[in-house]
# Entry
Amino acid sequence: MNFRQLRYFCEVVDGGTLARAAERLYVAPTAISMQIAQLEGSVGGTLFDRSAKPMTLTPLGHYFLPRARELLRLGQRLEDDARDMAQGRRGWLSIGFVRSLLYSVLPLAIRRFRERHPNVKLELVELLSEHQTTALRQHRIHIGLSRFARPIEPPNDLRHAMLFDDPYVAAVPSANPIARARAPSMSELAALPFIAFPKDPASSYASQVMTMLHSAGVSPQIAHEAIEVHTALGLVAAGLGFTIVGASVATRGPTDVSFLPLPGVLETTQVVAVTREDEDNELVTSMLGTLRAVRSQLVPKQGVRKRAQSPSRTHARTTG
# Structure
C-alpha cells in the first residue's frame, strides 16, 4: 500500500467513476484500475462493489475511506512542513514535559516563545521524566522538562539545567475542614485517604513521595492510584482524599483544591530542563532562556499561592 494507491482510491470515490477520476488525475483509467486492484490485494478484500452501476463502496471500503483520507492529509502536511524547513521558512522544536508543569511555567513560556518565533513548528509531548531520556537520545525531542524527587546526576551524554526547586505541598479538597486550618498537622493529613500518582512502573516518584511522608511520621493509606497529576487533582476535588504535588502547581491549580504546606518537610522536588550534551540549536537556547525568564513570575518565592490561604503558611522555600 502506498500514497498513490490511496490517492487514486479517494479520487474514484469523489469522482464517482474511474473515467472521471482519470480525467482529474491526468492518467489512463487502466492505470487507476491497476493501482486499486493492487491496493485491494494488499488489504485482502474488495473496496468497491463493481457489480453496481456506478460502483459503490463495500463495507470494507466504507471503513477504509476516512482512514485513507486522514493518511493523505497527514502525508501532505508532512511534505509541506519538511519543505518549509528545508527552505528555511520554518524551524522545529520538540519539548517533552511532565504534566504538572502545565500548572506553572510551561503555558507562559510557550506564549512568550511563540511571540518571538511565530514560524517555528512547536511540538509538545507529554512524557514522564523517566521516559524523556530515551526520547532525547532518539532525537524525538530537543528538550525534556523533568521533575525529580531528589537530585539526579545526569548521564555523560545529557545536560541538566536547573529551573527551580519546588517544595512539596498537600493538595486537599477545599470543602474539607482541613483546608480552613491555619497549619494542618501531619496527623490530620494522615486521617485522609491518599491518592498516589503517577501509576507507571517506570516512575519512582510515587514511592519517593511515600518515603518522604513516612520520614515525616505519616503512613497514609493509598485509596486511589492515578496515572497522571490531572487525574489525581480531579480525585482530590471530588473529595476522595489528598495527594502530594509541587508548590508551583498551585499557580494554576483547580479552584476547588487547596494547597497546604507540609509542616517540618524541607525536601523539595527539582524541575530540570534536560538536553543532549552535544545540542547546538538556537531554538533550544531561546526556549531555555524563556523558561528561566518566566519562572520568577510564576513560581512562588515564599509559600504557596493558594485559594483562601496566606502565603506565610509555607515552611519550605523555593530558589527558582
Observations:
- The two ends are 53 Å apart (CA to CA).
- The longest strand covers residues 158-173.
